[in-house]
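Subject: Sanity check before I submit

Could someone independently write out the structure tokens for this chain? I want to compare against mine line by line before I put it in a report. The sequence has 229 residues.
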Amino acid sequence: MSNKDNQQRTALDTKRLVGIAVFSALAYVIALVCQIIPAIQGFLSLDFKDAVIAMASFIYGPIASVIISLLAAFLELVTISSTGWYGFIMNFVSSAVFSLTACLIYRKMKSINGALIGFFSAIVVTTGVMLLLNIFVTPLYMAQVGIPLDSAGVINMIPGILLPFNFSKALLNSALAMLIYKPLSNAMRRIGFASGDAKKMEFNRGTVVTLSVGTVALIAAVIILFIIA
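---
Independent answer below. Compare away.
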């Protein structure tokens, strides 16, 4: 490999690291802003950072999604979180599972259908994983704050609260990701932090389908959250 090739590779690696840092900071800022949203049922926090982390995974790959999920969750832990390590575990797992599922499927099927299947799968997988975590982690957190709640009590909360909340949160992040992916990825390419050439936003069939599905999903998520709030 020539010196020129080494220099180009080093430049790409540096831009990749900077891009990951930018997405980590953006995910944290979104989590910070979402602190103003009242907790649903008093203890379920809603945020939109998983959409941004999923976008980073599409651009930089699955390893980047794990790194950004970890950094964002840790920054929340040491600054704004009131749930300690329990919240850190829930935040990290939620973001990592959501972004990894969507990314891995999209990398196998790089098309509109692949993206839609990826996000649908991410909704299902994330909802299932978070429900399992709720059963085991939520009683531990509740005991710490002096609220008696065992696993059986958490299971009783699944149909009316936990299932619709986890589903609608994943649905909301999927919707936002579908709506912002094109402009965000193009912006990253224009400033040199992602490979490929920036493309003009064209309202072709794929774009219309993505925006339509994203809009419908966004509305559905908001309605579900409004019902259980």
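---
OP: Matches mine. For the report I'm noting this point. Residues 151-190 form the longest helix (40 residues).
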